[in-house]
Write a structure and sequence with these properties.
With about 270 residues, this protein is mostly helical. It has 14 helices and no strands. Helix 1 crosses helix 5, helix 3 runs antiparallel to helix 10 and helix 6 packs parallel to helix 13.
Amino acid sequence: MKLNLFSKKNKSLLRALVVTDFKLRYQGSVLGYAWSLIKPLFLFAIMYLVFGLIIKIGTIEHYAVYLLLGVILWTFFTESTQQGMNSIINRSDLLRKISLPKFIIVLSATFSALINLFLNLIIVLILIMINGVELNYTALLFPLYILEIYFLSLGLAYLLAALNVKYRDTGHIWEIIMQAAFYATPILYPLSVISDKSDFIAKIILLNPVAQSIQDMRYILITKDTATLSVVYDNFAIVLVPITITILIAFVGSVYFRKSSRYFAERI
């Protein structure tokens, strides 16, 4: 199966699927697209109330922005992997009726999540200005980290989508994994909370590409006090580990999806 994403036909199909996904997701909703902003902001508000005002975890400069950015990036990672995982099953009726490249269905699901991310980042930018966070030239690296977390999400989405067609328990297992991963990732708390107890565990956490990219984005946008992989490890080879993991997952996920897709018609 030859994948030519950049053909005119495939680009038109991708665009149509993304638009249709947005329309169906908010069909019949009074607030419509506003829900893509309300949900992460509501989660942020609760977490900021509990961890920023009541419990007061650590002393982080511009904690509100620090927390909001982490919540929005994690929401994107969760949304893109879950929607990508369910995309083939959700589009089973369409796949039975017409022949179309199956990889585009998963891609469109992750693109929808990516659009939501960009909308939410506008809120982050507004909060950055309100909090008086000073941006410098390092902020120009931000799109590179967005690409890193996106390709990780896409690779996992392809892998999970193929597994979900074969094993319908995949969604339940992934939900449990994501619940555990949320608390194992420094979103609510600074990494120093972990490193004060165990420097080894803190170093292991930062090898996770999601944790690494979130910490790096906080570092270049919000505060230089954020612990990053390059700060914790004084070894360039170690710094490349999360990027290598991302590339491997993207490759393995796409290859497995391509090989499995020939059997989708029998299983959906």
